[in-house]
Specification:
The protein has one domain (about 1-215). Helices cover about 75% and strands about 0% of the residues. Helix 2 (about 10-35) crosses helix 3 and helix 4 (about 75-105) crosses helix 5 (about 110-135). It is built from 7 helices and no strands. The protein is mainly alpha-helical. It is globular and about 50 Å long.
């Protein structure tokens, strides 16, 4: 583990990550502009943030589940789109929470967990409630639907992500490379851990998953 931390503490880890993530993001943006411009703006942001957080893995998930070119759809692909949707919001919340709790307020470990989880949950929750309300769902129904459909995914994602981050980063501060490299790794671990939860929820009918990209109106 000390060897891993030493590798992740090197600036070259961040450089290597950027060399993987930035081309992946460029490919995504190009595909969204040329071949899949018909996707909802929300999903374009979802996939963009997923690639920013998880680089080539995020791009692979988009390529296999988020494009109109997919051959078929089903629970496995819907679960990927669902977890990506959750991941995009929770990731933003987690980053803001950690920067605030560790970098600005310099809180102890327990408060770091509370603040980071709270921000992540709030962001993931809002990303579900907002579109429901825009579609005309009453506030009370939107809040309830978001609570029971997203809470299991968010809880598992954040327990794993925050746990891995604290384990890897230790006492790293905002100016340390390890702070950011452990955040990169932990976010992707949370994504992977939450996927089976989303799959089970879809199979049980608790949530539908995001729309089949082949069923939206094609602009090109």
């Amino acid at each position: 583990m000390e060897t891993l931390r030493a590798i992740m503490s090197s600036p070259w880890f961040i450089v290597g990550w950027a060399l993987l993530m930035l081309p992946s993001l460029a490919v995504l943006i190009r595909d969204l502009q040329v071949r899949n411009a018909h996707l909802m703006p929300l999903m374009k942001w979802v996939w963009g943030l997923t690639v920013v957080y998880s680089g080539p893995l995020g791009l692979a998930l988009y390529w296999g589940t988020g494009r109109k070119e997919i051959a078929a759809d089903g629970p496995f692909r819907r679960a990927v789109r669902s977890v990506a949707h959750c991941y995009s919001g929770c990731g933003m919340g987690e980053i803001v929470g950690l920067v605030l709790a560790v970098g600005i307020l310099a809180l102890g470990t327990h408060w770091v967990v509370v603040v980071t989880f709270s921000f992540a949950y709030a962001a993931g929750f809002a990303l579900t409630v907002g579109p429901l309300v825009q579609e005309g769902t009453p506030w009370s129904r939107a809040l309830w639907d978001a609570f029971y459909s997203e809470t299991p995914s968010i809880v598992v994602m954040e327990i794993v992500a925050i746990g891995v981050d604290l384990y890897l980063a230790g006492d790293a501060r905002l100016g340390d490379v390890l702070f950011w490299s452990s955040l990169i790794v932990s976010l992707t671990c949370g994504l992977i851990a939450a996927y089976p939860v989303n799959y089970v929820l879809i199979r049980m009918g608790v949530k539908e998953g995001m729309m089949d990209p082949r069923e939206t109106g094609h602009a090109s």
